[in-house]
Amino acid sequence: MKSEKNKINRITKKEGLKLLKDSDLLGLGTMADNVRQKLHPKGIVTFIIDRNINYTNICINRCAFCAFWREEKDPEAYILDKKTLFKKIKETIALGGTQILIQGGLHPEFDINYYVELLKSIKENFNIHIHGFSPPEICYIADKMGFTLKKTIKVLKEAGLDSIPGGGAEILSDRIRKKLSPKKIGKDRWLRVMEEAHKLGIKTTATMMFGSIEKPEDIIEHLDAIRKLQDKTNGFTAFIPWSFQPGNTELAQRTAYSVQRKNALRRTHHAVRYGATAVEYLRALALSRIYLDNVPNIQASWVTQGLKLAQIALRFGANDFGSTMIEENVVASAGVKYMVSINDILNSIKGASFKPAQRDMYYNIIQSY
Amino acid sequence: MSLKKIENKILSGRRLSPEDAITLFESDDIFTLGRLASRVAYRINGNNAYFVQNHHINPTNICVNRCKFCAFSRSKGEKGAYELSIKEIIRKLNKGQRAKGKGQRAKGKGQDKLNSSLVTRHSSLPFTEVHIVGGLHPDWPFDFYLEMLRQIKKSFPHIHIKAFTAVEIDYFSKTSGLSLTDTLNALKNAGLNSIPGGGAEIFDAKVRSKICPEKIRGKRWLEVMEKAHSIGIKSNATMLYGHHETYKHRVEHMLKLRDLQDRTEGFQAFIPLSFHPKNTRLSKTVHCSLFTVHSNGIDDIKTIAVSRLFLDNFPHIKAYWIMLGEKIAQLSLMFGADDLDGTVIDEKITHSAGALSEKAMSKAELINLIKKAGKVPVERDSFYKPVNSLE
């Protein structure tokens, strides 16, 4: 893999597809490991201490792969009150946290005032970085107010928003989005939010959720869209591939159901019933590292893969362990729970012969261990 | 460190020295390790990855040994202690058999095959092997175990019984006053078909005195296996790693197994077991840094690879998914393992130590894992003969 002069020697879509489909895992891992080593030669693996705060689980989108959303009338539906929110932030800071990741459902009653007030009240009370509101939330606010994306992001920025998480990207292929999340914003709109944010000087991350019903071509389409936008804006700090978790979601059940009725979807059923296996995760991760030559950091997802596999991911292209996730509601509701402490993360990183370091959202090192 | 010299040895089929194995353990080049181990695995087993449909029975958790790494054992009278009667054991096995019948009837009615696997998933599944290990009960006589074997064989004549670790067999010989050979012959005559590899832990006496001071010594474990092999009983061998041991202890352990295998050829599979620290007394004594050096995902796949390369006379390396988790077990297939164990109905021992893996896996799930790793799934019997060809 030649990558000195990215744009000339970078791999093409066709080459990426071939690597994803046909290469052997160890060969692909070796390549990704080499790329990672070139970009991060000091052998440091970073992580951030933050808390994932979900202000509501009431959501009008109701995506098939999501086990978190509830209807307004559901007894498990909630909106977080200020007192609880502040308590969570206090705990985060006490645990050495520097950031909160604040995301939630698209609540039918909320308009921009809710979000502005939320941001302002946090900033008034705490010195903490707010990484918040994925593109579907930002679009929802814009549409509700009749604002442009630019204006919406500007208002949120002025109220205290520091950076935007890359969620809601799922797979940036409208063919798949129509099936998985028909009510969620399309590929172009997701990218436009990010572009506007980057132009306003707001850094963001990008995610990819794979292992549901997509084909290798869709993964390439996704990676290519991110790479193209990054060429233009350089606003993505990290890329986070993670795999669909099939427990408890409509998608897993719906697909199983349709198989019972017709045999045709047998292969899909298989994929969705089990989700991506370890081998497929590492393959997608390694390819991401190779393909996204202009995105500096790749995160391993211990939340979806477990600590052991996340540790191995550090040799398949990842250089960051993501968040310590003091609280994680969304994946836990799909039945995946890994109880992990900062010590476990430090030990995992050290056990793979890397030097762990706490970072902020911009990958500045706060503390080395 | 360059692995070139070791690589040349492996490619030309020469045996690795203990020093070579330590060099491999110390290497960070997991990709070369994986490639070499895969090559050797391919030489021995082609592209096959085996699994078995098996049922676990743990007759009791009452145990006179209270090994520090074990979260399963209880003393007699302690809360949570249990004893199964032979009747209860037969009932448990029957449950699995009945579920098999149900699945087949559903299929007979013209329903989708997948349907029946949905029905039986995680509840009770068909099986060809029963795996029996348990505590060293202070009162149960040897005859009770013999009767257990006879009754199981009577009710399920075609089922392979893989039962009793070397530690239990040694204990039977003590409680019955019989010689080791007579004990083993009695078990064999009552229906025992093979012996699992448990209880080996780490042979090194010093480490053993820290983790399981009451357990038989490594030398005795090897004696039991040698006797068993000599009267035609096949067995497996395990190694528990990721606690107080060093790479040197692991290699010494494997060397003793390799030497015995040269003499007897009685071992079928080597099964490295990663230590599960939760809920065990050892987790309090093992210093954190020590624990991480040895119990992590990279160490797991390395240990699989080194064992495949060093144990050149072992036909199979098993990635026991219950211990490793299905993700690392699947990945092990690309680091030299050729066996995932099986459906493992009713596993108790590892789960009492906080294993996060599922308690049973359906055949369809195992096949999915194997195929996605690019291997050919082969359902095997207890001697690694294919049971069914799958597609």
Task: Please write the string of helix (H) and strand (E) elements of chain A.
Answer: HHHEEHEHEHHHHEHEHHHEHEHEE
Terminal CA distance of chain A reads 32 Å
First-residue to last-residue Cα separation of chain B? 44 Å
CATH topology of chain B: TIM Barrel
Sheet with the most strands, sense and barrel status of chain B: 4 strands, mixed
Strand content of chain A: 5-15%
Rg of chain A to the nearest angstrom? 20 Å
Assign the CATH topology of chain A: TIM Barrel
* Low confidence ranges of chain B: 100-125, 284-295
Helix content of chain B: 40-55%
Total beta strand runs of chain A = 10
Task: Estimate percent helicity of chain A.
Answer: 40-55%
Task: Please tell me what the overall shape of chain B is.
Answer: globular
Q: Count of helices of chain A?
A: 15
Mean of residue pLDDT values of chain A: 87
**Number of contiguous helices of chain B:** 17
Rg over C-alpha atoms of chain B, rounded to the nearest angstrom: 20 Å
Q: How are the SSEs ordered, and which strands pair?
A:
The complex is a heterodimer of chains A (369) and B (391).
Chain A: H1 6-9, H2 13-22, H3 25-39, E1 44-48, E2 50-54, H4 82-94, E3 99-103, H5 112-125, E4 129-132, H6 135-145, H7 149-159, H8 174-180, H9 187-199, E5 204-210, H10 216-233, E6 236-243, H11 250-261, H12 266-274, H13 278-291, E7 297-298, H14 302-313, E8 320-323, H15 342-351, E9 355-359, E10 365-368
Parallel strand pairs in A: 1-8, 1-9, 2-3, 3-4, 5-6, 6-7
Antiparallel strand pairs in A: 9-10
Helix pairs in contact in A: 2-10, 3-13, 5-7, 6-7, 6-9, 7-9, 9-10, 11-12, 14-15
Chain B: H1 4-11, H2 18-26, H3 30-45, E1 48-52, E2 54-57, H4 86-108, H5 113-120, E3 129-132, H6 142-155, E4 160-163, H7 166-176, H8 180-190, E5 194-195, H9 205-211, H10 218-230, E6 234-241, H11 247-264, E7 267-274, H12 282-285, H13 288-294, H14 297-310, E8 316-317, H15 321-324, H16 326-332, E9 339-342, H17 363-372, E10 376-380, E11 386-388
